[in-house]
Design brief:
CATH superfamily: MFS general substrate transporter like domains
Strand content: 5-15%
Distance between the termini: 16 Å
CATH topology: Growth Hormone, Chain: A
Radius of gyration: 19 Å
Helix content: over 70%
Structural class: mainly alpha
CATH architecture: Up-down Bundle
Number of strands: 2
Number of domains: 1
């Protein structure tokens, strides 16, 4: 469900941002440089989120990861609405933080729970499924924006993307997955591990 949710959110939110973002920035802010600065703020947020995620170990990492990821489609809707630039950049950075947290906790959960000989295959399916609809989004963003308006496409896509992301929490196994607890030997080396409360 998580892969499908992100596939949909990338389709409706991220691809319109990539295709239409510079034009929207020029129309709304009078400069397409705002699009570049927004991406930079997003990048700073993503790196910051990844650093925090590497140290913070929530009890239910996938619940926290999905909730942290909800702001990223919303920040695209905010971008299209044209708030003052400082607020825009804070919004984009917050979206980036959520993506950074999600990426660390998602990849960590996979690495801890998927047998090593299957991890590359599972990761490949994960990435392929998540990105599968993006080419469709690139093709449709322009024609749909021409029909209904660029702002409408990006605001609507951001809101739909946030809803799709929340739907990743529907499976109980995602909501209730708890953090991995290692079992240390007397010398402090982790030799085995258990998953507390794992479904």
């Amino acid at each position: 469900m998580g892969v499908l949710a992100f596939s949909v959110s990338l389709l409706v939110a991220l691809t319109p941002f990539f295709v239409l973002g510079a034009a929207v920035a020029a129309d709304v802010y009078g400069s397409d440089a705002v699009y570049g600065w927004s991406n930079a703020a997003w990048g700073v947020g993503t790196v910051s989120g990844a650093i925090v995620g590497s140290r913070w170990r929530p009890l239910r990492p996938m619940r926290a990861a999905v909730m942290g990821a909800v702001p990223w489609p919303l920040c695209i809707a905010v971008f299209a609405l044209g708030p003052p630039e400082p607020l825009l950049y804070v919004s984009m950075a917050a979206g980036g933080v959520g993506i950074g947290l999600f990426a660390v906790w998602w990849e960590t959960a996979l690495a801890q729970r998927i047998p090593p000989h299957l991890l590359s295959r599972v990761s490949a399916w994960d990435w392929m499924g998540s990105l599968a609809l993006m080419p469709v989004g690139y093709l449709l963003a322009g024609p749909v924006a021409e029909a209904v308006g660029t702002t409408e496409v990006m605001v609507g896509g951001g809101l739909l993307g946030a809803v799709a992301t929340v739907l990743a929490l529907l499976p109980r196994s995602t909501r209730e997955l708890t953090r991995w607890e290692g079992i240390p030997k007397p010398d402090g080396v982790l030799t085995a591990a258990v998953v507390t409360g794992a479904p």
